[in-house]
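user: can you give me the structure for this one chain? tokens are fine.
assistant: on it. calling the predictor now.
[tool input]
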Amino acid sequence: MKKCLIALAIASVLTCGSSQAQQVPDSNDKPSVILIAPESVQELLITHFELPIAALPDETARATFLHRARQEIGELLATEGYFTPTLNLRPAEDANLLALEINLGQRTLVSTVNIEFRGAISAASSERLKRVNQLRTAWRLPAGRPFRSSDWEEAKAALLARVARRDYAAAQIEESRAEVDPATASAKLSLVLDSGPAFRFGELAISGLERYDEKLVTRLAPFHAGAPYRQEQLLGFQTALQNLPHFNSVIVNIDPDPALHEAVPVKVMLSEAKARHISFGAGYSSNNGARGEIAYRDYNLLDHAWNLGSGLRLEQNRQRLFGTIDTLPDALGYRLAWGAHIESTNIQGLETTNHALSVARSRTQSQIETRLGLNWQREQRKPADSTSESIQALVPDWRWIRRTVNDPLYPRRGDVTEISIGGASRVLLSDQDFLRALLRYQIWWPMGRRDTLSLRGEAGFTAAQSRFGIPQEYLFRAGGSQSVRGYAHQSLGVQEGSAIVGGRTLATGSLEYTHWFSRDWGAALFTDTGGAADSWRDLRLFTGYGAGARWRSPVGPLALDLAWGREAEAMRLHFSLAVAF
């Protein structure tokens, strides 16, 4: 067995032969005993066992220390499944030191596991028998595994959680025993779990509402009175209420009293947020420059709990005045949204002024978000050194998004897929016939303990006789943060005069590796490629690559990237909020 010689007195590790390492104290206030132990238990012993500083001058002192070491180290090693260790105190290579050598002995393995279920879950029925078999199969510490105290406790907690999350809210472990036989290095595990009765949801008991009707809460409940208890539904209900801007805090729970199991009340404790407020903001991005913003919100418009959002945003190359009204979701989860905005932009030599009205019907169910909308736009576009154009379009569009990431702000695993389709016709208040489709996809893979590898791609196409007569929102440009880094924002497109305008085709892709030095700070290496053009035949891909810093700020992951544009032959700095689309 590979061993390592450790001196707890100093931080350096010196190689000692091919299988041991030794640390030697360098002053009189360091431990007088060095520790020789296998690498697998070094950290445990270093952390929890205290070596003597003073020298052990005689046999009595050494015997006293050895007695303490056998007791304390024995208890520590027992938590790792080693119940028969041997300890030997002998002279070290340094004549001024003693060495405490530890032999772990045989590790204890789980020999048998006996799980007994009591309560309603043990009643004779095929469904309950199937669930009991599933619970036994999912047991985390089966026969043949090393016996560790922490694994034993975690396995019991996981089993109890599996039972309690569905039907049996009052489940508890009545008995548990681990019988260890040091002679055979085996452990027999047994436990008795009482599920209690099967619970069903009762009525909602709502507290804390003052200005809002109870329908604001009840329509979001994913269950009805009399439905079987499901913990995930309770948590989903709480999350849905927390996502409403009407509340500062939300607590949803039940009292797992077996006497209430036939109709357990669901307690909903709410704290209402202020219905109206004004906010101010400032910021900067490499895409649009400095930004200032003022916003007004009313979460109880017309006393219907509708959400009014409005604001004025001023950026260096974009200015926007907007207003939206969102209704509450109906019984099927659909909500309506009306919107209007006036926007002026000056990007890559293209000046636009856009007036828009929209209405949309959307719903979010679990990981899927769908939206069906109607958008009317009137756009005045003026490319530098080219002809101005006034455009009108009435566009019905549909969008589908699926998010399966583990964390919406800081994903390490999962993917996001977006599909959107929209179009217009000259017979319906539009200057051009067109059909636009866009596909976007991003996936994350965890690498090691904290790192992440991500891949992003998008492809878009607008079918039309010409790009003229189509608002820029339904055409494509690339470049900048969240697109192709190493190039200016929306600088990859179609040359018109001395301006860059949107084309009818788009393709981009990105590969990025992020290493986190700590919880909040990291660095990334990336390469991007892509472009936009008026046809697939004319599409040219531009490549950028570089490195950047990442910070997990309270509002999301901030990215500062330095990228080299290969075709531009120049470095460019990008600063943005690096969130998934």
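assistant: here you go. The domain at 3-103 is CATH 3.10.20 (Ubiquitin-like (UB roll)). Confidence is low (pLDDT under 50) at residues 1-27.
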